[in-house]
Write a structure and sequence with these properties.
By secondary structure, this protein is of the alpha/beta class. It is built from five helices and five strands; from the N terminus they run E-H-E-H-E-H-E-H-E-H.
Length: 128
Amino acid sequence: MAVEMNMPILIVDDYRTMLRIVRNLLSKLGFTDIDEAADGETALAMLKNKPYSLVISDWNMQPMTGFELLKVVRADDDLKTLPFIMVTAESKVENVVAARQAGVNNYIIKPFSAAVLKAKLKAVLGDF
């Protein structure tokens, strides 16, 4: 099944520069419907109001971390199948294991390139 390049994507990060970087990378890959949230609580509210096709979230945020957001999303009947990619600067094995156990679809370590993002997106969404 082909990936819709106009599918709605939510990127979540408390670091404005990282939001801009991820948005630009997604745009370069051809995605056109990209929304941003600066924290997990804002992202959760946005997820309740728009049917997103993918979440790309930073791990380390306050007041709700990306890991906490993932757990809430997986516990919600309406959102539990939503593809979710976690982004973090930490490559700790225990974090990757915890994210996998919580139901993350993929995991990206910062810094990353457009090629890495594309590969992770293909693994989660299929070819585009």
